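Running low. Got one?
___
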Amino acid sequence: MSISMSTFWLIVAIIFGVGELMTTSLTLIWFSIGALIVMLISIFIESILWQVVVFAVISITLLVIATKYLVDRDREVKYNTNLQGIISQKAIVVEDIEPYESGVVKLNGEEWTAISK
């Protein structure tokens, strides 16, 4: 039993897609998209070697461009969530904070573990 190259590339795209769902890095999605593109052009390109080369070029190019864009965009964003959003804010001490040990403070209705400067 042999499968067509289009079916093969669809399976590769699905595998990378499922792999991406298991991670949070936005890395494998570009290989999934590359496989989908090669799936479409595999109708015109019969050589498996050229299909693999096109897949690698498209996937790596998408990865590099997206990573550069996301990293540049990430540098401009100031996070106001979790720890980054509460650093340097004043809170009420609920449990004493001894030197070199942690205690508990209350900030915006939530209790946090804190260490004094």
Summary: The longest helix spans residues 48-76.
